Structures are given as structure tokens and as C-alpha cells.
Amino acid sequence: MLLRRCLIQRRLVSHVTTPIFYPNAKPHLGHLYSSLICDVFHRWKTLQGEENLFTTGTDEHGLKIQLASERNGFQNPKQFVDKLYDDFITLDKAFNVNFTRFIRTTDTDHINNVRKLWNLCDKNGFIYQGEHKGWYSISDETFYPESKVIEDPVNTGKYLNTETNNEVVYHSEKNHFFKLSHFNDQLIDYIESNPQFIYPEVKRVQILNELRNNRLQDLSISRPSFRLKWGIDVPGDPSQKMYVWFDALCNYLTSIGGIDAIMNNEPHTKLLHTRKEIQSPRDWWSNTTHVIGKDIIRFHTIYWPSFLMAAGLPLPRQVVVHSHWICNGMKMSKSLGNVVDPLLMKKHYGEDPMRWFLLENSQLEEDGDFQESKLFSLTEMFASKWGNLVNRCCGPKFNLQRAVQFYSDGRNPLLVNDDNLQAEVNNLVKKLSNIPISMDKKMNNFQTASALRDVWSIINDTNAFMQNAEPWTKGPAEQDAIIFLCMETSRILSILCQPIIPDLAAKLLDRIDVEKDNRTTDFSRIGADTTYGVGSNVKGRTVPIKRVTKRT
Ligand code: MSP
């Protein structure tokens, strides 16, 4: 019995991470998107009663930041990142992104951890000194192999790398190297025998092909301190600073309690902003999911597991790779003037429509196209389909409290006096009974678009049912059956959509007077809540979803 309880407890912990963002400019839609995927996952797990940590942060060292800080006239890069850090926090607050720790790579505990990771890799014989010659991209802060370098097709005389299309220059310097080549076959074995490690499948195939076709070369993991001033010193060699990705990737260990905590697997609280005690840090780590954009897949699926293997540390559970957002069919860029400002969108349309929009109109495998007209249409749908359904059922002609009390305990079957209508009732009951489980599966697999389409399908069916059933023409028993089913739809879907639209869902539940304690998934079954609806049909209550105008 005890063992069983331990096993159950061990399973119910998880950790989800965003990439840590470069604070070299204000945050954009892509940053918000990564954060929302994680926030929704975190809230979903929490709603299911699972313990989940959600960590995010800023990647504050490196040449990119050093140069941006100089360009912006700052003497000290720390002051520069402090300023931008505020913008990232503002964005998270504006969109209700509820992280459990926001890690900055300039945090002392992180710096200590990075040194520890380096020392472990070094002690185990995976770091050596050598000369590095090759094609280097300043903006990507990485060297590219010859096979990934081309002449700029626009004849500028410059060279570009084919992965990010950024400029590369030929360069030679003394560096510390990581024996990445040692891990080529180990990585292939690991990815083959742990099929969940890279998700979705198409990305797993891509990385496996890359490992099979282009054998890994050793990786330079330091830069001369005279060029890279803003970074962590290599232990024992202050003439070199650590490669920013070695530093940045380690955030995932720091944010969950640090290397010692994971190695010793001892309970601790000290490194977390939440005062939750981490019982067994290793369990959290082995249930860690990294959510990343497609451009940083190599760093997370090749470098990161290799660093961990070299240090003798376990690997996280999964790397989930998402696509990018474009705008009206084109890549967002300052010169095209089509960069979407998330805060501007929030100001006009509200944070929840924006949250829903981004999650409904994106799939991991395909780039999402941001169209403001679609965001506006979504706000209309919320008001006319969902808000209006609630308004109608809560009108003075009906009595939700009576309907709930009569039907919710299941003793009185939901019968309407018409075969066609009864078929609609049965269809709705079936869909509502299935959605908690199907949604759980989809949310755990990051298929939010599909989950939200299912939600709309039920809302649409319910509106059609309300229209066809004409409860205002019926006697009390039938009228109550119709109103009850329509409001069960809204109640159950509002509970399930809390992770997506926390504020709107709360308003919808408030409007039908669902108690705060009755908003967990235990109550997402028809008839599970026998107490709501009291006073909902009183005149003059507020409208849960207000219409917005088009932005000119
Ligand atoms: N600092 C590194 C990550 C280090 S993690 C150990 C970095 N930062 S970033 O700020 O450039 O990008 C952060 C994330 O934003 C990446 O996952 C990237 O894919 C994502 N996005 C950047 N532009 C995007 C879109 N247009 N759309 C969606 N996500 C995009 O890389």
C-alpha cells in the first residue's frame, strides 16, 4: 500500500521549461508563444491535481548581449539586462504567465551551477584545449561547419550559414573544446530507444538523420575574454569565458534546484521561489519537458544531452519543438513593419482572447499566421456564441437554480418531448462526457489547436440546440432540461478552459455562481455540481464577455 502510494506520488510531478530569452530587445510574439505553451501546460497539470514546476527566464550573457548593450549606450551590460528583464516580467504579468521560477543567468546560484557542470565534464575527461578555426556567426554566437556555409546569393561578398542565414566570418583562436564527437552513437542509441525524447516525430527523424549523416565534430565551448567580456570565466582560466550556450542550457538544472540536488536527490526548498519542498529532485528532472522553437533544436537535442551525459547526469524526459509565428503570410521583421506587439494586442482585445488565439491557430509542425482580423473574429465568437448562450440561459424567463436542483443528481433523466431534439440532447451528453479525457490527452501532447476546436464544436452544437429547442415555448420540466444541459456545457467547458483563458473562464463560472471549490476537473462531469445557479437569473447581473470594436 505504502509502495503504491509512493509510486503514485512519484508519477505526479513534472517540470516544464521555456527557453530562456535573450534580453537584447523588447520581447515579441514568439517569446509570448513559448511562454503560453508552457503556462497552459503548467495550469493544465495543476488542474489535474499534479504538482508541476514551470520555469522561464532570461539568457543574459554573451556577445549578442554585450554588443546590444554597447549599441544602446550602456557602460555595464548588467544595467542593460536589468532594464530588459523588466520588460519580460511585464509581458508575463500582462498575459497571466504563472511561472514558478524566473531564472536569470546572472543569478549567483546559476553561475555556481554552470561552474559545477563545467568541472564535472572536465573531471570526466570531456574538455580539452585546442585551436579553433572555422566559420563563426556573431549573431548566433556559434561556429558552423564548412558544409553549412555558402556565399551570399545577393553578391555582397559575405558568407552566410544555411541554418539561420546569418553572416559568418572565418576565424581562428585558442579555445577549450568539448568532446562532442564522443557522443554521436550514444545519442543515436538514446533517441532510438527513448522515442518520446524529441517530439513531434518529424523532428526526431530530422535529428536522427543529422546524427547518422553528418558525424558530430568536437565543440568549442569557450571564447577569449578579450572578445567576449560579458560571460562566466572558465574555471581555472580567466583568459577564457564560457560559450553562452553551455551557460544558458544549464539554467534548466539550476531552476529545479541545482546539480547537487539532482545528484544527491535530497529534499530541499532553498533554490525555488515557490516555498514548495522538492521531495525528490530527480523525479522532477526525469519528468522535465523543454519547450523550444525549431531554430534551437540542435542545442537542445544534441549539445544539451551530451553535456549531461558527460557530467554523469540524467537526461530530461522530453524536448518539444514548436514552429514559428509569421504575420499575414510573411516573416515578421522590423523593416517590413509587421512585427506584432503583444502588449498592444492585449490592450485592445484583452489577454485571454490573445492566449486562445495563439493556441488555437498554431500547431507544433506548422508555422502559425498571425492575422489581426482573425483575432477580432475570435472576440466576436466569444461574445456571440459563448457569452450570449450564458446570457440567454440566465435571463429572467428561466430558472437555472431550479433546473440544476432537479437534474443534477441524475435521478431525473434529461428528456425532451421530441425525437430530433432528444437526439441532439444525446449527442451533447456524449460529447460532454468525452471531452475531459480527450482534452487531457491533447493537452498533454501539446495539441491545443485540436482541443480548442473540440470546444467550439460543443459550443456550436449547444447554441443550435438552444435555437431548435426554443425553451421559452416549453413548460417548466422541459424548459429546465434544456437550460440545464446548455449551462452544463458552459460550466464544464469553462472548467476545462481555465488553463487557456483563466480570467474569462472565471467570469463565465462566476456568472452562473459556481463555487470556487467546484472548479476542479472532478466537477467536469454532467451533474457533478449540484449547487450552482443560485441567483443567476436575477435581473441586472453583468455580462461575462463584452464585445470589443475593430481596431483601426
Ligand atoms: N537564448 C536562447 C535560448 C536559450 S535556452 C537554453 C534563444 N533566445 S531567443 O530569445 O532568441 O528565442 C527564444 C525562443 O523564442 C526560441 O524558442 C525561439 O524559437 C522563439 N521564437 C523566436 N521567434 C519566434 C517566432 N516568430 N515565433 C515563435 N517562436 C519564436 O534562442
UniProtKB/TrEMBL annotation:
Catalytic class of the enzyme: ligase
Q: Name one GO molecular function term.
A: ATP binding
Pfam families registered for this protein in UniProt: Anticodon_3 (PF19303), tRNA-synt_1g (PF09334)
Q: Which residues form the Methionyl-tRNA synthetase anticodon-binding domain?
A: 425-525
Protein EC? 6.1.1.10
> Which compartment or compartments is the protein found in?
Cytoplasm
Is this entry keyworded Aminoacyl-tRNA synthetase?
yes
Cellular component annotations (GO), alphabetically ordered: mitochondrion
Major subcellular location class: cytoplasm
Q: Which superkingdom does the taxonomy of this entry point to? A: Eukaryota
Q: Alphabetically, which GO biological process terms does the record hold?
A: methionyl-tRNA aminoacylation
Keywords assigned by UniProt, alphabetized: Aminoacyl-tRNA synthetase, ATP-binding, Ligase, Nucleotide-binding, Protein biosynthesis
SUPFAM superfamilies the UniProt entry points to: Anticodon-binding domain of a subclass of class I aminoacyl-tRNA synthetases, Nucleotidylyl transferase
Q: Which residues form the Methionyl/Leucyl tRNA synthetase domain?
A: 16-393
InterPro entries documented for this protein: aa-tRNA-synth_I_CS, Anticodon_Met, Met-tRNA_synth, Met-tRNA_synth_2, Methionyl/Leucyl_tRNA_Synth, MetRS_core, Rossmann-like_a/b/a_fold, tRNAsynth_Ia_anticodon-bd
NCBIfam families in the record, alphabetically?
metG
Which family does the record assign?
Belongs to the class-I aminoacyl-tRNA synthetase family.
Which PANTHER family does the record match to this protein? METHIONINE--TRNA LIGASE, MITOCHONDRIAL, METHIONYL-TRNA SYNTHETASE
This chain's protein is named: Methionine--tRNA ligase, mitochondrial
Q: Taxonomic lineage per UniProt?
A: Eukaryota, Fungi, Dikarya, Ascomycota, Saccharomycotina
